[in-house]
Amino acid sequence: MQIKSIEGYTARCEAKGVERDVSLFMMQDEGLAVDDFIVVHVGYAIQKITAEEAQTAWEIYDQMLEAGV
Prior knowledge:
Blueprint: E1 2-7, E2 10-15, E3 18-23, E4 37-41, E5 44-49, H1 51-67
């Protein structure tokens, strides 16, 4: 997901038109900023990734959905 805004340890994030509030608590020392891309698991940011990695991940997810996996 891409970070759209940050307030304290909570980020408003977006991916494919879906917005969610995500906890940044587990990554509070990572220096996350608006427009960064993160991997989210059960509402928590768990890893910072590049825009290219995010694009590749979405392409793979789309292929999986098309294949019915």
